[in-house]
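Predict the structure of Nitrilotriacetate monooxygenase.
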Amino acid sequence: MSGFDPKTLRRALGDFATGVCVVTAEPSPGTRIGMTVNSFSSVSLDPPLVLFCVANTANGLEGWRSAGHYAVNVLADNQIHISNRFARSSTDKWEGFAADPGVTGAPLISGAIAHFECTPEHQYPGGDHTIFVGRVVAFDRPRPNAEPLVFHQGRYRELTHQHDIAVPADALWLLGW
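Done. Here is the predicted structure for Nitrilotriacetate monooxygenase.
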């Protein structure tokens, strides 16, 4: 341990606002897994790679390790109930919940802003988490103008668009691309 108080560090890390996603997979026929994450990030455009992290204590870790495909579903601000459903550790997350299969067979959540369907590329140890890097093989943006679900300081937040702030064209470091 680095000597940091874990709760204080977690609060400081919570100062970084993130989007909220639900990652879904069907590691074996008829067995679906899903979890809410805010550890989603783009990695590369060429090849198209994204990542998410799973706690090493998560019940579904072995399912994530064995999944041949998975989908990252970027949630909209009206999908808090879905985020909460998949944030639970219970085994009945899918009870009464419908999802459509994507081109890879991974479950896609209706109403999401975007879906990224991936095949596993790498898995890396990351302290108390495993980092999953996936190659994007399909994606869509069914609701590109919807407001995203945002998480900041341990709470869901709403974006307010009183005015948009322009990003300088030469600020590629800021845009991440």
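The chain has four helices and twelve strands.
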